[in-house]
Amino acid sequence: LNDKLRFLDMSNNGITGKGAEDFCERLVESYLRVVFMHWNPLGSRGGQAFARALKTNSDVQVLDLSFCGMG
């Protein structure tokens, strides 16, 4: 991801758990501070991908995963 990008709104884009895994592979190397992913069918697979990514990325301050069907 771009090293200048700080805010990303990907809400309601049909991103699945697999898509979240792909995104999170890049998230660990980004400087994003705010990520909106609400209203995507991420499921538990996507939730777990974000949990793994946040273990190594301390720049993210706001992550909205509401209404993503994670259980």
Summarize the topology.
Layout: E1 7-9, H1 17-27, E2 34-36, H2 43-56, E3 62-64
Parallel strand pairs: 1-2, 2-3
Helix pairs in contact: 1-2
Biggest beta sheet summary: 3 strands, parallel
Overall body shape: globular
Please give the radius of gyration in angstroms. Answer: 11 Å
The CA-CA distance between the termini, in Å, is 29 Å
Overall number of strands: 3
Q: Provide the structure class.
A: alpha/beta
Order of SSEs: EHEHE
Strand portion, in percent?
5-15%
Widest sheet, order of strands: 1-2-3
Compact description:
The protein has 71 residues and is α/β, with parallel strands linked by helices. The protein is built from 2 helices and 3 strands, in the order βαβαβ.
Which tags fit this structure?
35% helix; 3 strands; alpha/beta
Descriptive account of the structure:
This protein is an alpha/beta fold and 71 residues long. Helix content is 35%, strand content 13%. The protein contains 2 helices and 3 strands, in the order βαβαβ. A 3-stranded parallel beta sheet has the order 1-2-3, with no helix packed on it. Helix 1 links the parallel strand 1 and strand 2.
